[in-house]
Design a protein that fits this description.
single chain; 10 strands; alpha/beta; globular; 14 helices
């Protein structure tokens, strides 16, 4: 089991020693670390120095405890305090966004805490997106958040029969364990499910998917496309938990339709899901949101932890990062899909066909197709 690096940005002038996050982190590392002490980094520049190519190259090969032997497992521990702002965390984001290959080959998780009930999910999503763009993969359910008075742990605490504080600590330890042990298992042949709600004739997003598909080797992939645009797709109405679980155990849902008939069986068979996502008013399209919401019934009965998530996102003007963070929050953090490094191809195009005229788009789609192939298949 590999030792984790703990990246814990500490803003000057703030006390962290006796904070709730510090206590939970110490316990999580003690319970999962055995005799291996983690490397803890406090400043963004320390992260840059440890993960830089020069630092890695300076390590002695095959020496236990060298940077090269520990660099692949990373736990981000972020304390947002009362106002949701940690200036050293902002510096860390700058490092990740400007050093695109810095976390190549890493697998990460996020433990984040705030005095306020706000900010934790939003800031964690920003972090995961930046780290993912820098080459870091994230196992499903990669986030544990201590928000405010821990009301967000009320259900989990009830299920476990413990206090909210204990549930928080237990989930943090499980997160560290997941980061230390999880990796995606490649397949000889992979099943890829593509979900979209686009018009084939006018959609720039779907046009990019077609270019990517043409570059995926047929002998390595079984590809299924499901269009949700023209079918009747009712959104989730929040059935009681036991009712949702009952239908999920039967691979069904109270509302039936295309989700039960097509999407559920395809999800079960898929090794990866690729979401084709045009930007609609800085949000996923209504049918894709409904599809994600309706996955809850299946998620109650089936784990998605061995299924990877990819996406193609196109905005007419801007906002690709907003859509990417919605997918990360909904499908990686909540539903448990595995997030591969650089999971999304993102472009800007407005008029129909404009995406196909973007300079260098052939190389970009080829690189994205190779990214999918190399992550999913041997």
């Amino acid at each position: 089991m590999e030792r984790p690096i703990v990246i814990c940005p500490r803003e000057a002038g703030r006390e962290y020693k006796d904070s709730r996050l510090s206590s939970v982190l110490r316990r999580a590392l003690k319970e999962t670390g055995k005799n291996a002490e983690p490397v803890v980094l406090y400043e963004a520049q320390e992260v840059l120095h440890l993960f830089s190519a020069e630092a890695i190259g300076a390590c002695t090969e095959n020496v236990p405890g060298s940077m090269d032997s520990i660099r692949r497992r990373v736990v981000f521990a972020i304390d947002l305090g009362e106002d949701g702002i940690n200036l050293e965390f902002e510096r860390l984001l700058r490092v990740l966004r400007t050093q695109k290959g810095l976390l190549e080959g890493c697998i990460g998780g996020v433990l984040i805490d705030a005095v306020s009930p706000l900010y934790t999910k939003a800031e964690a999503s920003r972090l995961v997106q930046a780290a993912n763009d820098a080459g870091c993969a994230f196992p499903g359910k990669c986030l544990v958040e201590g928000a405010g008075d821990l009301s967000n742990f009320a259900v989990e605490a009830g299920n476990r029969g413990v206090s909210r504080e204990e549930a928080y600590s237990q989930c943090a330890a499980e997160l560290v364990q997941s980061v230390r042990e999880r990796c995606f298992q490649k397949k000889t042949n992979a099943s890829l499910l593509v979900l979209h709600a686009s018009s084939h004739r006018t959609s720039n997003t779907f046009a990019l998917w077609e270019k990517v598909r043409a570059k995926l080797p047929e002998e390595k992939f079984s590809i299924r496309e499901i269009g949700l645009r023209n079918g009747f797709l009712q959104d989730c109405s929040g059935c009681p938990y036991k009712m949702c679980l009952h239908f999920g155990e039967k691979d069904s849902c109270f509302y039936g339709g295309v989700m039960v008939e097509d999407v559920y069986p395809a999800i079960r068979e898929a090794d990866a899901v690729l979401m084709v996502c045009p930007n609609y008013n800085d949000a996923l399209s209504a049918n894709l949101v409904a599809c994600i919401n309706r996955l809850t019934a299946l998620y109650r009965a089936a784990s998605f932890r061995d299924k990877a998530l990819f996406s193609i996102i196109v905005s007419g003007y801007s906002g690709n990062d907003i859509i990417a963070r919605q997918l990360i929050g909904a499908l990686n953090m909540n539903k448990g899909f595995y997030l591969p490094p650089r999971f999304a191809l993102m472009e800007t195009a407005n008029a129909p066909g404009e995406a196909l005229r973007i300079p260098g788009i052939d190389a970009q789609t080829a690189e994205f197709a190779e990214r999918i192939r190399s992550f999913l298949t041997r």
